[in-house]
Structures are given as structure tokens and as C-alpha cells.
Amino acid sequence: xxxxxxxxxKEVRKSEFIEFEKIPVNQYNRTLLEERKNFSDEDLIRxxxxxxxxxxxxxxxxxxxxxxxxxxxKYNHPGPAHxxxxxxxxxxxxxxxxxxxxxxFGSHRSHAEILAKGMSAIAKxxxxxxxxxMNEFNDGKTLKIVRKxxxxxNQELALRxxxxxxxSEIFARSTGFNCGLGGSMHAFFTPFxxxxxxxxxxxxGDISVGAALYKRVNGKKGIVVCNIGDASMACGPV
Length: 238
Hints:
By secondary structure, the protein is mainly alpha-helical. 45% of the residues lie in helices and 5% in strands.
């Protein structure tokens, strides 16, 4: 602090209040019929599809953790796998309207959030853009694997790429989203707006605020979503 900056104790120590605007809590009060008007049949089918993909992904990991195999394929995975089975709707609901300019920071159990945000980005990006992202990532090594014997659209290929990239990262493979160095607890894929989760409970709380400040200061598009569980509410940064 410069010596010529005068601090008046009477001014800085005076009694006052910090006041906030009202924060709505438990204000959602729509019926199913009212909410149904906001979604087409195609929307609901995609929402269900995304939830099923996430559930199967998590059950695959669970099978490997408890039995060292999946569908008859033996595999021993000694690393962590913090699952979120049963929370698929929360993840898909969070991500469904978000695009690549919107960032998410994961919770302690973030596989569902990663896949949900990835599938939302895939649904909104043009096929040529998806192909460009997949070609540029990891010098095309991951794309080369998922493209083998594949026939379909670039969007379908991107879904395969998303699932394989996330799975390979959890299994510490070099073709994973972070070359296997992040694992289950620190997987991310920024081209889809997916930023890391955090092994520290509530750790995403302050990091996500910094990302939001970056967007605001620099006039960047999109919002930032911080995924945290109720256990994190007692943590200092939160």
C-alpha cells in the first residue's frame, strides 16, 4: 500500500450493512402439462436418450469396479470411479439448453455432467465443425480409433468419440480426453465447453466464479455453471 494513501478509520470502520436482492428459493411451481408445452416430442426423446446413455456408461464402470469385467470382457481398473447413478436427470437437465460457449465445472461425481454437456454440444454444432474438432484433438489419434468400422453421420460419430474419450480418460489411456492424466476426477474437454471437476469437495465453487468473471470482463458469450453437491455447502470457498 502506498504511504500517501490516507485511510480514515472513522470512515472504513463505520457501522453499516451489506444488503442483497431477494434470492428465489423453491419458486418453481409449474404443472407437468404446463412444462410439456416447452418441449417437442423430439426434445423428450433426446432427453431420454441422453439419460439412458449416461446410465449405461455408469453401470459399465460399476460392473468393472465390482466384478473386473463388463459383458464378459475382463478388465481390472484399480483407479477411482465416483459414480452418480440415479442423478442422470439432473445432469441432462443442467446441460440440455447449453452450447459450446457455455462452460460447466464438474462436481465430485462428474461423469454424467461431462457426457450430458458433450451430448448437448454435439446436438447444436454443425457436422463440419464436429469433424474439425475431432480431427484436431490429439492429432486425430482418438478419432482414428472411433472411426474404425463406423458407418453413420458425423453427429453419431461425435457421440461415439465423446463416450470413448471419456471412458479412455477414466481408464488412464493415452487416447483419453486428457491423455489419461486426469482420470475419473479431472476429466474435461474444452472444445465442448466441459471444464474440469475437482477432487476437493466444493472445489469448483470458486474456480467457476473466476471463469464467469473472465467472461464478463472480456465480453465473452455464454454462462458458467458450477455443479456442486449439498455436502459442499459447508466448504469455505462455497
